[in-house]
């Protein structure tokens, strides 16, 4: 089974140097699916989406783990 995790990366307010940016990552919703189920998902479900939470814009990505 593949483990899917939707991750939201929240950048810190002001990183010291752009190449040293830090982010807090949290699992928003985890799910387990088979490879066939994953391949059957429409492309829009495999990409990223933008979520607005408490006025903050958060990019949410679906990440595949084996």
Task: Write structural notes for this entry.
With 66 residues, this protein is an alpha+beta fold. The chain has one domain (2-13, 22-65). The protein contains two helices and four strands, in the order ββααββ. It has helices spanning 35-40, 43-46, and strands at 2-11, 23-33, 48-53, 56-65. The protein has a four-stranded antiparallel sheet. A hairpin with a 2-residue loop joins β3 (48-53) and β4. Residues 6-10 have low confidence and may be disordered.
Per DSSP E runs of 2 or more residues, the count of β-strands stands at 4
Q: What string gives the helices and strands in order?
A: EEHHEE
The averaged pLDDT comes out at 62
Please report which band the strand proportion falls in: under 5%, 5-15%, 15-25%, 25-35%, 35-45% or over 45%: over 45%
